[in-house]
Amino acid sequence: MKRLQYVPLLLTVMLLAPFSAVAENSTTVGDFTVHYNAFTTSTLTPEVAKAYGIQRSKYRGMLNVSVIKEQEGTTGTPVPGRVEVKTLALTGQSAPLSVREIKEQGAVYYLGEFPIRNQEKVNFVIEVTPEGTSETFIVKMEQQFFTD
Predict the structure, then answer these.
(1) Would you say residue 86 has pLDDT above 60?
(2) Which of 7, 9, 72, 111 has the fewest other C-beta atoms within 10 Å?
(3) Range 99-111 burial, b when 16+ CB lie within 10 A, else e
């Protein structure tokens, strides 16, 4: 599958993203670490955006979530699960953010896209239930976006 060749590119962009005003966070609960970050889709290369059907724009944000099961002596194992996200407005209104699961080359991550404005702060509430558990972890994150 041609899309597989872009996995290293997408992962590289997400790893380098912290150097371009991107929030990169993680939370560990029990044996699991939830990694999450948000950035503008304009930081993706045209090839990666096309391969994943993502619209590149400085007015579109993207949330990336992954779940790793910690294993001593390793970097852990990516695990699928149920990931639900809500965005919260300053007025307290919440809206669901649709995320899609991507499984490729041993990686599992969840991507969600949303519109943004200059200097907008977006609050995320991320609910994660790793596969094989009944535990749900709630992670909160705030990211301010600058488009101009």
Answers:
(1) yes
(2) 72
(3) beebeeeeebbbb
pTM: 0.82
| HSE-CB of 6 using CA atoms within 13 angstroms | 17
In this structure, what token pair is assigned to residue 103? 């499984």
Positive or negative, the CA dihedral 48, 51, 57, 62 is: negative
* Domain CATH for 85: 2.60.40.3340
Q: Does residue 10 carry a pLDDT above 70?
A: no
Number of domains forming the structure of the chain? 1
Contact 45, 24 (CB under 8 A): no
Which residue range(s) make up the domain with 125? Answer: 2-144
Q: Do 50 and 91 meet the contact criterion of CB atoms below 8 Å apart?
A: no
Residues constituting the chain:
148
Residue 54 has pLDDT above 90, yes or no: yes
